[in-house]
Write a structure and sequence with these properties.
This is Enoyl-CoA hydratase. By secondary structure, this protein is of the alpha/beta class. The protein folds into two domains: 191 residues, 2-enoyl-CoA Hydratase, Chain A, domain 1 (Alpha-Beta Complex); 51 residues. It has a six-stranded mixed beta sheet, sandwiched between helices. It has a three-stranded mixed beta sheet with strand order 5-7-8. α1 runs parallel beside α2. The longest helix has 20 residues. The protein is globular. The mean pLDDT is 93.
Length: 249
Amino acid sequence: MDPVLVRADAGVAEVTLNRPEARNALNLPMCTALREIFADLDADGDVRAVVLKAGGPVFCAGADLKERKGKDETWVRRRRLASFAAYETIERCGKPVLAVVDGPVVGSGGEIAMSCDFVLASGAATFRFPEPHWGTIGATQRLQRVIGKRRAKELLFTGRVLGAEEAARLGLVTRLAADGELGTLVAETVEAIVAAPPLALSLTKQSVDLGEEMALSTGIRIEMAAIERNLADGGWRRGVAEFADRIGE
């Protein structure tokens, strides 16, 4: 069984973590599949948006520690590098990538979700980062960038479970769906994304990501370069015309 499934329709790719029998625990084949799939989606001109979700009731139960039994330090180091490569490939995908969480997220699952552009979740979503309690290290970088250093330390040090509402308040979850409405929220969000001109959307994502840790003056130069590239394409005229038509209706 493939550890990750991908299906594309009408410009939207749906990527599904597919190890429900293992609570979608992240193992080496899943790391490799995620890296390859997102590299392909990034290069696919027909894909306008990507939805990353999970099969089964658990989004991801963290790293699959069972596969480390009998392995030496060299194997574990390479396995961790494979997971970092998977997260980075998701993060660097030029298409908008949204995670859909409808159940528990643990450890590496949080890294996967935080590698996406944002997270939509139901009230069933929970988050936990127990790496230090498992005798390992993880989530020390993305988590603090999402929720702040002190909050990240508290979650990592205690390993406590974070409920959906608190996750939304802290910024791990971008939008929290009402009961039974997650599917509707996802559909509406994807519809809004694919309505935007793809080049403008891609350049917007790139500008936000590149400017995140830059001084404002440098960030403005990044945005100006994106504007120039967008103007050179010429597609902006169609976007302006379509917007004017909608306003006039």
